[in-house]
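Margin note from the TA: students keep mixing up input and output lines. Inputs are the sequences; the output is the structure of the whole complex. Example:
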Amino acid sequence: MACAQSGDREAYRALLEDVGPLVLGWLRRWLADSPDLADVYQDTLVHLHRARHTYDPGRPFEPWLFAIARHCAADHARRRRQRAWEILVDELPDRAAESDPDRHALADALQALPRPQREAFFMLKVEGLSVGAAAARAGVTPGALKVRAHRAYKALKAILGGSDGG
Amino acid sequence: MRDPRWEQELVDRLVDDAAPVRRLWRPETRLLVWLAIVLPVVALPATRVLRDDVTQRLQAPAFLLEEAAMLVAAALLALAALRGAIPGRRAGTAVSVAAGATLTLAGLLVFSKPMFVSWTPDVFLMIGWPCIWRAFAWTIVPWAVLIVAVRRGAPFGSRWTGALVGAAAWGLTFVAIRLCCQTEELLHLGVFHVLPLVAGTLLSAALAPIILERRT
């Protein structure tokens, strides 16, 4: 990114091609329908482009990148308020489905969680990220991420009637 | 959903537009620049209408503490706004706690003043009017400079950022106006000093989406 900031187009191209799948994977958890996913993905790359001067090479890249993606996804969700609850759960990744036979119950339970908790749950349990990596991506401390995940497990357990839920 | 051709076109377009950019300075540096610009702008008119007992008041620990607390709070709020305009960065716990503590301290000191019950409405308004118009007039430059600085970043939570910008700018003006207003009375301070600060913060929060959301 530092090279891209100084006008190195090849470095910038490589960066955009590298972050594409990362951003898409992240956005897929928020947005169910494909046309919207494409729009928000495009929006995220455009925002990244416009905000590239704000990146500080002395700081980690992921929190910066995912803050932009989060903003685009949240903005999209806000604009489409009538479909706000469609985010995330319609396209539960297979691993979540495999781990719980009652996919719809889990989907409903996840819908009921606050967004930060849902995000923490997915990063740790579906994507299998480490606490450190998930915290960096969410832009919070590892301690804060653990608290979110713990609350998510607790809430899921309560909603799903004592089953593990995660 | 991925259409490689479509995606490639987008990447090509962005790469074509990838002119070198000037990195933002650190928020702390930008805060110092903001203060360097706006302190003289606010101080200049204030020095022309200083209260008669300003020297004496500045020797009173409570007044000095109130002024210092509000000045520090304004600086910290501005720092929070500048940090918040960078994706992935937050005000930080230390800054948030310190801003809240200094703001509370200043508030407690202001609201510890005695209240007179003998105001007549016309005298109350006549004495308060200069504080109101000064508050608005002197805040324009600090607010505008800070909002431009924040806009240089990529502020996402624009209402909250706008509130921080407003509180910082009005907080700074609050300090200057206290050096010019001789009335040490609770109702006057509440209505003509604190209320404009609150109203200015809300106004800034309301205006910010219009001003800030164009860029991002």
